């Protein structure tokens, strides 16, 4: 019997706006190499490799043994977890939050940012995003139907001037600004003065602010990352997203939160009510333990990243590869030195994967403003970082000889 022809599968129009995922190719190569038995050193993804704090894991196991926790959870976050988040904001930033009106838990911060964009942005709305950018900051707004204008990142005064020029000249006026400090991929740390100016501009030009604060606790050399909400008036204009993924090594657990402006939090709560049922209760309870008892673990983890940063930067400097030492986050943002810059970040990363068994994130994956750079994640141990750089150095020497670069 002749088989019926397949139905035509036709995606929605918005799918055409999503470019090919540039990290996909590097990831695919990495997997294929690993299947063949090659030892690929992965400095590409910001996927933490260290364990979550022991008391958090113990609490998860204990609570997961209680079948009552297997029911649908409180979608917007257990009250006790929201109270604990409020306490941590008071302790860390001196910011008082109402756990019932100004805090909502999310399935990691990425989910929260995406759904908040759906709640705030629609066709005809303009969204400002500093670039290079973590892809969801751009594409959550685009998927929601908005038009994104990118502001090239620069030193603070230049960046603020660009922001103000856009606010004053763009029509329709920007509706939302998406910030992210400490920044992925460039590792730039936000300052109170920057946030103060942003709040001033948000009030003057009437836009909302979403601040992604996923790397809040991973800072080095005594630097502290201020919260956007520390600035007077911030909660009149915006919200801040936090995450358990990086500070507590709980990336796979999917636990985050959104705090700040009541109406924005309510909008997120409303839209999430249609899409999801929140986070497994055992994870939420384990999150309470993380916030209550694991400050030392967070400091220890930040020190681990700082030590890896030191190794990475020292070895790169010895290779005559100038690098700005990141003050925060899980990444170094490295300009590709000549003559290899001619290749572009994608081809250079592919060569490093092929020849050196090292995965790197090409800067172009964060937008054209990232071209010429590599994002190097501090997720392998110091020994492996040294080994990766040795292998890269050898591969670069080979390339120079072969290609007459
Ligand atoms: C800037 C930034 N925001 C958000 C996320 C995602 O965090 P979460 O695991 O909380 O969704 C990441 C992950 O890499 C990130 O780099």
Automatic annotation (TrEMBL):
Coiled coil residues, start to end: 378-405
Enzyme Commission numbers on file: 2.6.1.-
Pfam families the UniProt entry points to: Aminotran_1_2
GO molecular function, one term: pyridoxal phosphate binding
Annotated Aminotransferase class I/classII large domain residues: 39-389
SUPFAM superfamilies on file: PLP-dependent transferases (SSF53383)
InterPro entries: Aminotransferase_I/II_large, LL-DAP_aminotransferase, NHTrfase_class1_PyrdxlP-BS, PyrdxlP-dep_Trfase, PyrdxlP-dep_Trfase_major, PyrdxlP-dep_Trfase_small
Keywords, in A-Z order: Aminotransferase, Coiled coil, Transferase
Transcription in keyword set: no
Cofactor(s) annotated in UniProt: pyridoxal 5'-phosphate
Family: Belongs to the class-I pyridoxal-phosphate-dependent aminotransferase family.
Name by which UniProt lists this protein: Aminotransferase
Species the sequence originates in: Desulfatitalea alkaliphila
Lineage: Bacteria, Pseudomonadati, Thermodesulfobacteriota, Desulfobacteria, Desulfobacterales
């Amino acid at each position: 019997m002749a088989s019926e022809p397949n139905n035509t599968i036709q995606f929605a129009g918005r799918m055409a706006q999503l470019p090919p995922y540039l990290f996909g190719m590097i990831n695919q190569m990495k997997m294929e190499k690993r299947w063949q038995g090659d030892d690929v050193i992965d400095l590409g993804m910001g996927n933490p490799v260290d364990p979550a704090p022991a008391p958090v894991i113990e609490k998860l196991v204990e609570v997961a043994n209680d079948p009552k926790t297997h029911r649908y959870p409180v979608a917007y976050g257990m009250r006790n977890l929201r109270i604990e988040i409020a306490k941590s904001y008071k302790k860390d930033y001196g910011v008082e939050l109402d756990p019932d009106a100004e805090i909502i838990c999310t399935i990691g911060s990425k989910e929260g940012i995406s759904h908040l964009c759906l709640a705030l942005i629609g066709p005809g709305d303009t969204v400002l995003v500093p670039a290079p950018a973590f892809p969801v900051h751009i594409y959550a707004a685009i998927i929601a139907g908005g038009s994104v204008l990118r502001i090239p990142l620069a030193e603070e005064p230049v960046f603020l001037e660009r922001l103000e020029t856009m606010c004053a000249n763009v029509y329709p006026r920007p509706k939302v600004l998406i910030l992210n400090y400490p920044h992925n991929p460039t590792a730039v740390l936000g300052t109170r003065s920057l946030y103060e100016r942003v709040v001033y501009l948000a009030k003057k030009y009437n836009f909302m602010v979403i601040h992604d604060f996923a790397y809040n606790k991973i800072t080095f050399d005594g630097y502290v990352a201020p919260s956007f909400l520390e600035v007077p008036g911030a909660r009149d204009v915006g919200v801040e997203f936090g995450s358990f993924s990086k500070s507590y090594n709980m990336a796979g657990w999917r636990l985050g939160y959104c705090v700040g402006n009541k109406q924005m939090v309510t909008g997120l709560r409303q839209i999430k009510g249609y899409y999801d049922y929140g986070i497994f209760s055992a994870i939420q309870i384990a999150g309470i333990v993380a916030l209550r008892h694991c400050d030392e673990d967070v400091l220890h983890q930040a020190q681990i990243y700082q030590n890896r940063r030191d190794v990475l930067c020292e070895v790169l400097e010895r290779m005559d590869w100038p690098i700005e030492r990141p003050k925060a986050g899980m990444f170094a943002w490295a300009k590709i030195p000549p003559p290899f810059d001619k290749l572009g970040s994608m081809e250079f990363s592919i060569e490093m994967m092929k020849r050196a068994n090292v995965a790197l994130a090409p800067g172009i994956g964060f937008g054209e403003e990232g071209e010429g750079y590599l994002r190097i994640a501090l997720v392998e141990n110091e020994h492996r970082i040294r080994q990766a750089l040795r292998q890269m150095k050898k591969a670069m020497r080979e390339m120079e000889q072969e290609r007459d670069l």
